[in-house]
Amino acid sequence: MRPDDEQQARLALNASLSAVGHSIDAELRSRAINLHSNSRALSAQEASLAAQTAALAKQNAQWQKLADSGTSKLKEMGDIENWAEMIERDLAQVEETMRLVDERGQEGQRRD
After folding, report:
1. What's residue 75's pLDDT?
2. pLDDT category, 87, cuts 50, 70, 90?
3. Rounded to whole angstroms, how far apart are CA atoms 62 and 69?
4. Alpha helices of 1-112 — where are they, by DSSP H?
5. Which of 33, 49, 74, 90 has its CA 20 to 30 A from that of 106?
6. Which residues, 6 or more positions from 9, have their beta carbon under 8 angstroms from its beta carbon?
7. Average of pLDDT values for 61-84?
8. How far is CA 102 from CA 50, 63, 112, in A?
9. Spatial distance between the Cα atoms of 19 and 27, rounded to a whole number of angstroms
10. How far is CA 6 from each of CA 9, 15, 18, 64, rounded to the nearest angstrom?
11. Burial 26-64, CB ≥16 within 10 A → b, else e
12. pLDDT in tens, 14-66
């Protein structure tokens, strides 16, 4: 091989390796840009998700407060219903007592 041919072969090899290096470098740069872009998009989605989660937690707390209030009102209604039933029983006893007193009074008047 002639020295001139050898030098041209080396230049061709170096040019070929340089071209391969540039194409790999361009591919890696493209991927790096894509990764950074995706990272920014994921960060934005993460922030949005955190805000939505906080809003849902707040709404859940409001619903829990409403449910607790409703439960308390139902308990009060149960207490009122129980109180009304007790009064109704007492009145029924008073009514029965008055009826018995009235009957005995009428029997006593018949005997006289």
Report:
1. 85
2. very high
3. 11
4. 3-111
5. 90
6. 1
7. 89
8. 77, 57, 16
9. 12
10. 5, 14, 18, 84
11. eeeeeeeeeeeeeeeeeeeeeeeeeeeeeeeeeeeeeee
12. 778 777 777 777 888 888 899 999 999 999 999 999 999 999 999 999 999 99
| Coil, helix or strand at residue 25 | helix
The single-letter code of the amino acid at 48 is S
- Which residue do the tokens 């849902």 mark? 56
**Which pLDDT band holds residue 1 (cuts at 50, 70, 90)?**
low
The secondary structure of residue 2, as a DSSP letter, is: -
Chain position carrying tokens 């995706």? 38
Residue type, 64: Q
How wide is the angle at C-alpha 37 spanned by C-alphas 33 and 40, nearest 5°?
Answer: 140
Q: Token digits for 33? A: 């840009």
Q: Token pair of 37, please?
A: 């872009």
